[in-house]
Amino acid sequence: MAHTSDRPQVAGLVLAAGGGRRLGGRPKALLEYRGRPLVENAVRVLRAGGCRSVYVVLGAEAQRVLGKADLAGCVVSVNADWEEGMGSSLRTGLASLTAAGEGEGPDAALVSLVDQPGIGAAAVARVVAACESASALVAAAYDGRRGHPVLFGASRWAAVAERASGDRGARDYLREHEKEITLVECGDVAEAYDIDTPGDLAHLE
Questions:
Q1: Which residue from 8, 79, 89, 91 puts its CA 20 to 30 A from 21's CA?
Q2: What integer pLDDT is reported at residue 183 of this predicted model?
């Protein structure tokens, strides 16, 4: 995308490939939230929070998700190796962002998880606002503890992808670069729960 301001341009990246193994094999992207698929909420939150473009990584039952969810305007990629865990989805998403082209692509990517509907636009906006350059490393914090979303400047994408494996996502990279992370407290505007088990589905009601 062409840059039209001096502020770094931040893209949103939704990781929505999970098959919901602990939910009886219900893909998380298709869980119903406020009458629509959960992935739509994640996209809406990123846009409302200031992400100029939104990239979505699908996996489990990707074609079904594409048929049911309105992802118009998003750059959608499908992770064929989604069963390997979040790391493979993060690599897929970062590859899609990198393909946007140097100079025209975003300066940073804010990574969100589809199964955290308690994190809304206010938290996203705070993390986006803390992005100062293409080397930024920013994370939301809840009572001082690092959580999601996490923002990676474009100069970090290759290293993040290299370290992403299994279900750990960017955890190893973040641990190794902990002193470089700018933490942005979001506990007053968001709740960082996950939708992982049948008991968690109450959060969607």
A1: 91
A2: 98
Q: Residue 160 carries which DSSP code?
A: H
Q: With residue 57 as reference, give the H or E element that holds it.
A: strand 53-58
- Give the pair of three-digit tokens for residue 55: 């990239």
Give, for 46, the enclosing helix (H) or strand (E).
helix 38-48
DSSP string, 106-125: -SEEEEEETT-TTS-HHHHH
Angle (nearest 5°) at CA 174 between 40 and 26: 35
> What does the alpha-carbon distance between residue 33 and residue 166 come to, in Å, rounded to a whole number?
27
Q: What is the C-alpha separation between 127 and 161, in angstroms, rounded?
A: 21
**pTM > 0.90: yes or no:** yes
Judge contact between 20 and 26, C-beta under 8 A: yes
- pLDDT of 101: 65
Are the CB atoms for 109 and 152 separated by under 8 Å? yes
The residue type of 4 is T
Residues 188/118, Cβ–Cβ less than 8 Å:
no
Q: In order along the chain (205 residues), what is the average pLDDT of each group of 10 residues?
A: 69 95 86 95 98 97 96 96 94 93 82 97 98 97 97 97 89 96 98 91 87
CA atoms within 13 A on the CB side of 35: 0
Please check whether residue 149 is in contact with residue 111, taking contact to mean a CB–CB distance below 8 angstroms.
yes
Given this model, what pLDDT does residue 105 score? Answer: 83
